[in-house]
């Protein structure tokens, strides 16, 4: 998913397809466990984590954590790298930055770029 191709919400009107894609991504964000997963992965020393690294800090079962990771991956917020029997997840920085860009009013974006 290319988040930067979507019209900014505070600029020109967003078209239907872009609105549906963005709504799917925002639904993935709209869960406390998923927000914590993104935070845990981002703050991990290697910038990535496996399901086994994430179950204890969240206090959730492995199948539940895997379910949330799948949703975040399908939304384009995480990348999955399979290594043997383990899968490691890391954030897709451009997806997170794209969402922030979409939700920043045009005047504020212009101010940020000139700083």
| Adjacency order of strands in the biggest sheet | 1-3-2
Helical content band:
55-70%
Any guess at the CATH architecture? Orthogonal Bundle
Tally of strands: 3
Structural class: alpha+beta
In what range is the share of β-strand residues? 5-15%
The CATH topology corresponds to Arc Repressor Mutant, subunit A
Can you tell me about this structure?
The protein is an alpha+beta fold. It is built from six helices and three strands; from the N terminus they run ααβααββαα. The chain has helices at residues 16-29, 32-43, 51-58, 62-74, 93-103, 106-114; strands at 49-50, 78-83, 86-91. Strands 1-3-2 form a three-stranded antiparallel beta sheet. It is elongated. The two termini are 29 Å apart.
Task: Please write out the topology.
Blueprint: H1 16-29, H2 32-43, E1 49-50, H3 51-58, H4 62-74, E2 78-83, E3 86-91, H5 93-103, H6 106-114
Antiparallel strand pairs: 1-3, 2-3
Brief rundown of the structure:
This protein is α+β, with helices and mostly antiparallel strands and 115 residues long. It has six helices and three strands, in the order ααβααββαα.
Keywords:
alpha+beta; three-stranded antiparallel beta sheet; 12% strand; Arc Repressor Mutant, subunit A; elongated
